[in-house]
Amino acid sequence: MAEWCERWTTWVSSADRQTATARLDALVREHRFTIAVVFPLVGALTLLASSEGVLPPPFAYNPLFVLFGTMVMRLPLAAGVFPLLDRRATAALVALTAYSYGIELVGVRTGWPYGEFSYGVELGPMLFGEVPLGLPVFFFPLVLNAYLLVLLLLGRRAESALPRLLATLAVVLLVDLVLDPGAVAIGFWEYDVGQFYGVPWSNYEGWVLSGTVAVLLFDWGFDRGGLRRRLETCEFMLDDLVSFVVLWGGINLFYANWVPVGLAALLGAGLLWTDRFDFDLSETRVGRAVWR
């Protein structure tokens, strides 16, 4: 393990790392509109068609399609964070991955801390037949997006630990107040007790716990100055949150979940406030095709 860490540390400071960063950035910029808007629109239509019985097997709720689509939408975030992944940041993400598997297994088996629930569809390969193997891809990017948005919204006030934690938890809860009602509506999972569009309040208490763990790990692992500088120069770094608003806002709109729709709009307003809906289509492949 020590040898692997040493090799990783050597690689992250090399010219290869800079080249890989430049290529990833160029890839995301080239396909920015497709990744952040087209993919979630297609995803929303596919999931709604699956839920309504319009899409036949094996296409309905196809787990590989769900996992692939999610990974594509996470690409802007991954590319944005990539140059900041030193040994400490990587260790934080590994620890958060282990935590996400552990707390989800506990949740599935005991009902704590999220409330009694079960998966209605397989979201890709399942660990121990109980928890999606791709869970980290689904879970901690949502918290990291919230953390980054707070850094932008609070500015210098984000230097204070308590305001940063509380503001991030508020955004995390906002995200889940949009996500879970939509996920329940399309049958991703089901709770034994439903109090807010089929979701128990205990679920949000669980997200406060998990969000706090994630924020503390991000604080420990990442250089906030580096994150802010990267946010300033990487205009697409929060495009995954744009995808989230399009995907889950659209699903909640279809099912007339009006409060989650309004909260998705609030997230969109936060992104607009930070200029993160700033798509210059002329710079993308789609835009160049249109302008020709």
Automatic annotation (TrEMBL):
Keywords assigned by UniProt, alphabetized: Membrane, Transmembrane, Transmembrane helix
Keyword Ribonucleoprotein tagged: no
Cross-referenced InterPro entries: BABR_hydratase, CruF, CruF-like
Signal peptide residues on this chain, from the entry's feature table: none
Pfam family, one: Caroten_synth
Highest taxon above the source species: Archaea
Spans through the membrane: 33-51, 63-85, 92-112, 132-154, 166-189, 201-220, 241-273
Keyword set includes Metal-binding: no
Name listed for the protein in its UniProt record: Carotenoid biosynthesis protein
Organism for this UniProt entry: Haloarcula limicola
Native organism taxonomy: Archaea, Methanobacteriati, Methanobacteriota, Stenosarchaea group, Halobacteria
